[in-house]
Write a structure and sequence with these properties.
The protein is mainly α. The chain is built from 9 helices and no strands.
Length: about 180
């Protein structure tokens, strides 16, 4: 039985020109990365655009990639930087239309029509509570809970220390608990 290559080995193989290594990496990370981006921007179209940009940056960096950290940590660092670029550019754009929440609510449910309404309502409550968090706290929560990254990995991705990550997570969780209790 052969062992599966690590993400780092796959990225290095891709850097040497092995296209199938990229296909494997993409298959492993596409869903969690998209969930992270979509959770950060809460707009499917924008998340898809950012998703493509992140993978384009991965492709562009294939030759100079060095496995100094886990591939997932490096990938989410690329995503974090792309999100920072987005938020910086957004400061110069108008706010979304007033009916954007309704548009998001009308977005097709990827799990299909058989999903129970109560589960949808609970997820929507959580999503609204996440939306109310400051971007730094929301990003830390998404990286910790959805991507299951360590505090150190989140710190490397976001460029802050472990204690700052802990603090952001603590404040975020306190706000989420209070918001969910109130609604």
């Amino acid at each position: 039985m052969t062992r599966e290559p690590t993400d780092e080995e796959l990225m290095q193989a891709f850097g040497r020109g092995e296209a199938n290594a990229f296909e494997t990496l993409y298959a492993r990370h596409r869903a969690p990365l998209f969930r992270f981006l979509h959770g950060s921007v809460r707009d499917r179209g924008l998340a898809e655009e950012l998703f493509q940009d992140v993978w384009q940056r991965v492709i562009a960096a294939r030759i100079r990639y060095r496995p100094e950290a886990r591939f997932a940590t490096w990938l989410y660092q690329v995503a974090h930087h792309r999100l920072a670029d987005h938020w910086r550019a957004r400061r110069h754009r108008p706010d979304p239309p007033p009916d954007s929440d309704e548009r998001l609510a009308r977005e097709a449910d990827p799990d299909g029509p058989d999903r129970r309404l109560s589960e949808f309502e609970e997820r929507r409550r959580l999503q609204r509570a996440l939306e109310e968090l400051p971007p730094e706290q929301r990003e830390a929560v998404l990286l910790r809970l959805e991507q299951e990254l360590s505090l150190e990995e989140i710190g490397r991705i976001t460029g802050v220390g472990r204690e700052t990550v802990k603090s952001r997570l603590r404040y975020a969780m306190d706000k989420l608990r209070a918001r969910l209790r109130a609604s």
